[in-house]
Amino acid sequence: MVEKMDLLLVGGHVLDPYTGRDGRYDIGIKGGRVAGLYPGGGILPAAAEVIDIDGDYLSPGWIDLHVHVADGAVIGIDADTVGVRQGVTTIVDAGSTGSRTFPGFVEHVISKAKTRVLAWLNVSRAGLFDGLSELADLSEIDEEETLRLIAENASIRGIKVRMSSSVVKGTDVEGLRRAKTIAAKAEVPVFVHIGNQPPKLTDVLDLLGAGDVVTHIFHGKPGGCLNEREEILPQLQAALRRGVYIDLGHGTESCSFHRMRQAHARGLMVDTISTDLYSRNYEAPVRSLSDTMEKCMALGMTLHEVIAAVTARPAAILRMPQIGSLRAGSVADLTRFAVCDEVREYVDAEDCRICGHQTLDVKGVVREGSVTLL
Hints:
The structure is a single chain. With 374 residues, this protein is of the alpha/beta class. It starts with a strand and ends with a strand. The protein is built from 10 helices and 15 strands. Strands 1, 2, 3, 4, 5, 13, 14 and 15 form an 8-stranded mixed β-sheet that branches. Strands 6-7-8-9-10-11-12 form a 7-stranded parallel β-sheet, sandwiched between helices. A hairpin with a 2-residue loop joins β2 (21-30) and β3 (33-39). It has helices at 102-110, 143-152, 165-168, 174-186, 201-206, 234-242, 257-265, 289-298, 303-308, 312-318, and strands at residues 5-16, 21-30, 33-39, 47-52, 57-60, 62-67, 88-94, 116-122, 156-163, 190-194, 213-215, 245-247, 334-347, 353-367, 370-373. The protein has 2 domains: 5-59 and 327-340 and 355-373, Urease, subunit C, domain 1, CATH 2.30.40.10; 61-318, TIM Barrel. It comes from Centipeda periodontii DSM 2778. Zn(2+) 2 binds at residues 160, 193, 216. Its EC number is 3.5.2.3. This is Dihydroorotase.
């Protein structure tokens, strides 16, 4: 006898880069998990609730690897505003909290949000609660407490380190060295912000290994991913061969259409698409993960590539195989959206403007089997 489903999603176009499915399937959900996928038009099990997707796309729930959602930090925004309300089922706060401020983040954000909220724990114990120069004083790194929190909190997926001049002041890459030592002991990756020099990007890259992530890879500031001859840095090529990932991290000042075009022309593409959303860039220039995905499509990425960059790939970076795919048994996180042929103008962090010809109309999410319609 076929088991009755809690929820049946019928008439949708499943797009799942992990499994390779790209076509009409109906999806059965039970106990917050994907219980079955059925080719369109086949015999279906009974269900307590049936929703007609009416030809829209269903992908694994979108994942944003880089947001700031800590209440009380210098920068931040409400988690669900940039999460489920924008079609994103999992967000990762990128270093807003450190070992001193993380317990309050659990109480006030993680435990209350409808969105799954994870964290890259800042290597500095205050995170971004005492200002934006958290690595100017390296005595603020508490190795013992950081290791304890990582061991006790599955929501912490790695360590955030910001490597730009306004953050490190005179400490150069020493904060990253210490973060790498802690990360090695905890067996987690580091998630590294890059920006204005110093430190030099080449020095940062030389310290990174398999599983680590560089965010803001296509910022337009001096000393970026291309050298003076507009070639991919040899140190970046070596890092990619070692298994380092590169992430977009749009942000207020860290996404240059010109740099993206240059990089794409040389075969350099991001592994993951993230927003670096917080209150100051929510209205412009970032807006949402879907808006950032549309910008990447306008610059040449395919629909399949942008969906992979917000599902399977970030799930792999987070080492969370239970999300990021629609395999039987995976957590029932899904994003429903339509692709619309529509001309739209986009702006980057340098006020450069381009036009795209397709938009992503997000219509709702399923989060662990519970439906949120937008």
